[in-house]
Amino acid sequence: MSAKGIKVGYRRVSAVDQKLDRQDLGEVDRVFEEKISGRDRNRPKLEELIRFVREGDQVIVYSIDRLARSLDDLKKIVEEINDKGASVTFKKESLTFSPGRSDPMAMFQLHLMGAFAQFEREVIRQRQIEGIEIAKAKGKYTGSRPWTDHDQIAELLETTDIKVKEIARRTGASQSTIFRILRERFGMTRAELRLRHKMKTAADD
Length: 205
Prior knowledge:
- By secondary structure, this protein is α/β, with parallel strands linked by helices.
- The chain contains eight helices and five strands; from the N terminus they run ββαβααββααααα.
- The protein is 51% helix and 12% strand.
């Protein structure tokens, strides 16, 4: 990082009830924070950060999965920041990617860590599904589970017109949890969101 560069932090959580301060970035000159799914590439604060950084700046992110949820997005975002002349540092993984440097080992580590993070999320999801099926077979499944994928539920709410009861059946989340996600993520009722989806679908046809 050049002498005139500054440290710029980025923090992200998927749900409004999650805490950003658990992502310790150390001392930074400016920080961009948002509560939005990592699956959504349209993240206002991330885009604002990319526009803000200048040559010599250092972007600090707590971990790879806070910046992106897929390997393709991860590569694109890092490249966008590097193209601005700024470096990207992931604290948890102790990786730094600097502009203008072709480091095959660092790029290999980026691919490896990004792929592993993506794989780990899929393993967790699959274990949840298997656990629910086992509990159902034993007659012990009550319709709730200790960990709920809020991103998955929000995606179903936004991109389909499935009823809340059916989403609860598919995901294992309680209906009260789904209604809470509706309020926190969208600020509207299920009927209003379903109407918005139908209008968008009709406009796209």
